[in-house]
Amino acid sequence: MDVRCVATSAIPLWDDHEAFDGLRSLKITATSPNDARWVQTVRVEPYTNYLLTGWIKTEAVGHTREIVDAGANLCLYGTYTRTAAVFGTRDWTQVRLIFNPGPDSSVNIGARLGFWAGTTTGTAWFDDLRLTPIRAGDPHPSWRILVLIYGTTDLAYTDGAGARHRVVGEMTALEKEQSAESARRFVEQDIPALNSLNMIPRLTLRFPARPLDRLTPLGAGWWPGPWDTAAERDPAFDSVIVIWRSWGTDQLTGRTEFIADAAGLTLNMGGEPTYATLISDATTWYGHRNVLKHEFGHSLLYFFEAIGTTPLPTVTNHAEATDYVNCRTGQFYLWIPETDSLLMIPNSIYSNDSGFTHDYYSGQTATADRPERCLGISPEAWAVGGPVSKPERPLIPGEQIASLRSSVETLLALGELSGGEGNALQAKLKAADRALARGQGKTAANVLGAFGQQIGALVQSGRLLEHRGRILSRETGRLVLHLSSS
Questions:
Q1: pLDDT tens digits for 139-198?
Q2: Pairing label, strands 36-43, 49-61
Q3: Tens digit of pLDDT for each residue in 259-297?
Q4: For residue 478, what pLDDT is reported?
Q5: Which CATH number fits domain 142-307: 3.40.390, 3.30.70, 1.20.1250, 3.40.50?
Q6: How far apart are CA 279 and CA 262, in angstroms?
Q7: How large is the angle between the packed helices 466-485 and 397-413, nearest 10 degrees?
Q8: Is the pLDDT of residue 393 over 60?
Q9: Distance (Å, rounded) from C-alpha 32 to C-alpha 13?
Q10: What is the pLDDT of the chain when averaged over all its residues?
Q11: Rounded-to-integer distance, Cα 187 and Cα 464, Å
């Protein structure tokens, strides 16, 4: 591992007294503004998705007035790709990054204090860095997201008094760039953290050439409904997010007019590709991505409720501070405004006072009256795939049986199956696995059929939640059909 520092004031060393896991950690101290890093070149497989994780502890890591406020971070050195920043004095905090090296066979992993055009001061410790390939056969279905950034709004309308108006607003080049960067960070950093890596988002950014000259009246203003953006929406995507300019100059009166009804609006599209909208101000000067998290969360909850793969009752992300708790800890959420410099608040991946934007993405939310009952988008629900994209997972019987066994273990751990019921199910899966190992596919299919019947009986008697049974039955039936016909 080689060490590269911008200035001699940065001190990199091994620290034998601080560690997240093990006996020591990497440490960087910068007493004057610096961009310092430990860098290691690691071989990777070209065109493969990777997950980079690590733990960072900080002491007095400061913000910067420079262009990039990166604090302490992990990065792909030589690129602009980095994790969320850790600032101030924080205990060990995990950071994550998903990337694809493209045609490259190696990458430079950096444990970094500062960034290009973003020097900082303080001390940071780095430990337990891991680089893991995410393969197509892993249970991480992709989700294709199209972000449409309309640079110009040109709306003509007649008000209630019969007066004509034509409001024209245009984003500057910087506003377009900021909106694109906000969308990119949301998709590449926030979504994987919010859903606990149960889904891999894939981003496409487009800037329609035409002005947004059709809007739908709503409340006290207007918004771009899916019919207003039909020409640019692409059916090949699981989700469409529209960013638009919500204010401009009235060409007939010369006054500046704000024409939106809200910062963001989302329509329930049922089982079709999801659709969410937000004003460009929410991606530029707001200083956070809460509106993106809130509106995209709405669209996901609508979709999964429509296809019936999430547990009931459905989570709502319009909530009060006493409505929900984390189902792992039983603790209420901390309703603190989230900004780019205040992320990963304890007891929640994300929580803030502008909307309920936290653990329901990863199925870890519970109602306060039933704190042990996990609600939201579970790993099993994510595994179904999106409105368009489905898991590109070949059916490998041995792996599928292992997946079913893991699901049963999870239900036992959650208390959704009794010990006796869980053991009986596991016994059938073990028997199917043994038959498969002996090349007796038909026998394995018969045993799995009995497993499926037991699942059905548990659901029928109310001893297993219906949505859990539906997912297990679907996967079992698919496997039985495969083994019976092979």
A1: 557 799 999 999 999 999 998 889 999 999 999 999 999 999 999 989 988 888 788 778
A2: unpaired
A3: 999 999 999 998 889 999 999 999 998 878 889 999 999
A4: 74
A5: 3.40.390
A6: 8
A7: 160
A8: no
A9: 17
A10: 85
A11: 34
What is residue 425's predicted lDDT score, i.e. its pLDDT?
94
218: nearest Cα among 281, 265, 160: 265
Which of residues 44 and 469 earns the better pLDDT score?
44
Encode pLDDT of 183-219 as tens digits. Answer: 998 998 888 878 877 888 889 999 999 999 999 999 8
Burial (CB count <10 Å: 0-12, 13-18, 19+), residue 152: middle
Look at 265-279, 358-372, 380-394 and tell me which has the smallest mean pLDDT.
Answer: 380-394
- How is residue 391 written in tokens? 């898991």
Question: What is the residue type of 244?
Answer: W
For 142, 225, 237, 267, the CA distances from 387, given in Å and listed in that order, are: 11, 19, 8, 15
Q: Answer for the pair 110, 70: CB distance below 8 angstroms, yes or no.
A: no
* CA–CA distance, 403 with 414 (Å, rounded to integer): 17
User: pTM of the entire structure?
Assistant: 0.59
The dotted CATH code for 2-134 is 2.60.120.260
Burial class (CB in 10 A: 0-12, 13-18, 19+), 93: middle
